Automatic annotation (TrEMBL):
Superkingdom to which the source organism belongs: Eukaryota
GO MF annotation: an example: molybdenum cofactor sulfurtransferase activity
Annotated Aminotransferase class V domain residues: 95-180
Compositionally biased region (Polar residues): 25-43
Pfam family, one: Aminotran_5
GO BP terms: molybdopterin cofactor metabolic process
Region (Disordered): 14-77
Protein's name in the database: Molybdenum cofactor sulfurase
Length: 255
């Protein structure tokens, strides 16, 4: 459907996001890591390249060490305090320690989102009206920007919007179950002991599952060609977190 000019003018498309490399594809069991993605330079999507300054850095690993010491109030730059008061007034007099679990919303984000809803009429994107066309165009724009961020060719990748990580994980395993039912082959599922509850719960979907107690067990499994994993022509899914919710330890991203 052709989008009217006045609708296109109402949509702001930002192009300042630097796209990292695409998520690495794997052979054998598929992998899912809800907290992070492993990127590979083996694939270059047909989008304009963006200089990656980090790849040209001469810093050594120890240069990335982080000092988690909390600075005194007198050491905090004035602009940080001003930014906090301006964008996060709900934090005044409070300390919030769950940003990783539930990201804080900035005041400007709420104001701009509210202004957008007041200024535009969005309809059901599956209909053919002008408001519906605007809604559909916004959805397509966001999908395109997300794919470009990961340098993922839309000819080979699609983006599905879900409610949260748990819903995304359930969608993945449901697809595996449907394919297994159609091919009359059971699904094998493996997960790391540091996996989030959402990942552990998937084991209830199949009788063939395995918990890897250590990183070494995973390495042995991979290096053995999948011994103790899915059999030939059997669907398999291996899941692990990029970072443990329990200890904060970051797991290898080269699996």
């Amino acid at each position: 459907m052709d989008i009217p000019a006045h609708i296109i003018d109402a949509v702001h498309i930002s192009s300042d996001a630097s796209p990292p490399k695409r998520i690495k594809s794997t052979s054998g069991a598929s992998r899912i890591s809800p907290n992070s993605a492993h990127f590979s330079s083996h694939y270059q999507a047909p989008f304009a390249p963006v200089d990656d300054q980090s790849s040209q850095s001469d810093l050594e690993p120890e240069d990335y060490a982080t000092d988690y010491t909390t600075p005194d109030a007198s050491e905090m730059p004035d602009d940080v305090e001003e930014f906090r008061d301006r964008e996060y007034p709900q934090l005044k007099g409070k300390t919030y320690l769950d940003h990783g679990g539930t990201t804080l919303y900035a005041k400007s984000l709420v104001e701009e989102f509210s202004a957008d809803l007041i200024s535009n009429l969005y309809g059901n994107p599956h209909s053919a009206s002008t408001p519906s066309a605007l809604a559909g165009h916004r959805v397509d724009t966001i999908r395109d920007r997300a794919l470009r961020f990961f340098n993922a060719d839309p000819e080979h990748f699609d983006l599905v919007f879900v409610a949260n990580a748990t819903a995304a994980i359930k969608l993945v395993i449901d697809c595996f179950k449907d394919h297994a039912a159609a091919s009359n082959t059971p699904v094998w599922y493996g997960y790391h002991k540091d996996a989030h509850t959402s990942l552990v719960g998937i084991r209830e979907s199949t009788k063939l599952h395995r918990c890897f107690a250590t990183d070494e067990e995973v390495d042995i499994w991979i290096n053995s060609g999948g011994l103790g994993g899915p059999r030939a022509r059997q669907l398999g899914l291996f899941a692990y977190p990029g970072q443990s919710n329990m200890t904060g330890r970051r797991l290898p991203l080269n699996w």
